[in-house]
Amino acid sequence: MSPITVPEGNLITPSLIETRGNASASLPTGHSVSPDHNLTPQTMCPAFGSLRVLTRIDGVQTAMVTDTGCLYGLTFVTHFYASRKSIAAPAFGTRELVAGNVAEAAIAACTEASRMPGTKLVAAISLCVAETAGLTEEMLPPQINGVDVILVRVPAYAIHSHPEAKDVAINAILKRYAPPRTELTADGVEKPLTYDGGNQDEEEMRRKVIMLGEVFPADPISVDAVLKRLGSGLIATLPSRNLDDYKLARRVGAIAAVHPFYGGSVATLRAAGVPIISGAPVGPEATYNWIKAIGAALKLDPALTEHVAAEEREKCQAVISQVPLKGRILVCGYEGNELLYARLLVEAGAEVPYISTSIQKSLYTAADEAWLRARGTREIVYQKTLEQDIRALDAYKPDLVLGTTPLSAEAKARGIPAMYYTNMLSVRPMFLSAGLAGTIQLIRDALERAPRYAWMREFFEGPMPAEPPPSTVNTMD
Known about the structure:
Elements: E1 4-6, H1 14-17, E2 31-33, H2 47-54, E3 60-65, H3 68-80, H4 94-99, H5 102-114, E4 121-126, H6 128-133, E5 143-144, E6 147-153, H7 162-177, E7 182-184, E8 190-192, H8 200-205, E9 209-212, H9 218-229, E10 234-238, H10 243-247, E11 254-257, H11 263-271, E12 276-278, H12 283-298, H13 302-322, E13 328-332, H14 338-347, E14 351-356, H15 366-373, E15 379-381, H16 386-396, E16 400-403, H17 405-413, E17 418-420, H18 421-424, H19 432-447, H20 450-461
Parallel strand pairs: 3-4, 4-6, 9-10, 9-11, 11-12, 13-14, 13-16, 14-15, 16-17
Antiparallel strand pairs: 1-2, 5-6, 7-8
Helix pairs in contact: 2-7, 7-11, 12-13, 13-19, 14-15, 16-17
């Protein structure tokens, strides 16, 4: 099939779309676009990530500054995900935008939110239209009716995934409640103001850890148990339902950033002088290194740290020896933790040639990416599209797909076992030996169902051709 081309300006017209599948169509020259490009969105508005975090915090009331269409869609999906709070919003449309009343409308919505019972913090969520109009933090008062106000800026043209929008929301809170305290050195250089060790309560706090990452509720319990063996402990996990937990972030001994997309929050905490531990305790090697890093950051007993780290590594290896994995797996989610799950699967014996995620490549993905590539991963795609994932089905012929809903549906139609990544993996524990055991068993059971999937495909569609023709996929990169 000859490629379809787009006229100048990349304008895809109805007549052009109708030529899909018509190899003889005469088309003007221009930028090529493959005939399977359906112009479908790859994900919901990323602002959902901020709403998901903020509406779950007790005492936080949101005021969404956006047009009526975005307000309807985001309010619906937020309530669908169990938010029981009202979302304040201005009556904001073309008329208000043209009149230049964006700031006034935002302040009115924040004032309404501040009057709601139990409100301690108003988060003004500024989306595309408001950002284009120029709503800045200076336009909003720091307090209304004695309630703090923060601006959370999540225009979809700048924030490309809902995990990264979670970071924007958390970072906005941290900037208000965990700001850097600095002092000037003798040569005029600004540096973080550190604790001088003069208060016993603060000294105790300096041995505690806050985990930064939206994780399954069982994971913090397992992590806390291991940290307590070191003489430390997990005092909170962010995002948290408790607003006071965010205020502790500057006081603890270390922040364990277990997911790689909290770059803004990590930068704010670094500026506040808090040590940051990256990576996560997934699989034997990463678990050992993570516990050792905790011990070093908190200046804990080296011998005890080595003992606990080695013991937990041995527990992970014991789990793998009992239920090893064998098969080729594609990991294609949009939660931002896909590289961590891929590491876990590789250490358990699986082959993971292809990984895709919705988040951007960054300094915080570099270590996991290097580790995976050294162990056989051939492609790691950031800010991925569905078309790229479908192309990977043709290229790698996996035994199991852990993917988005449409990718899983496509894999099942081909007789390949597949699971929806978000609902089947991101809602399960994954850290330390406890999380490893449950995840590996789930994956092994899925791999063993391959004959059933092949039988169902053959039942509905007949025998599989010897070699199906590859799909032409346009990535539009």
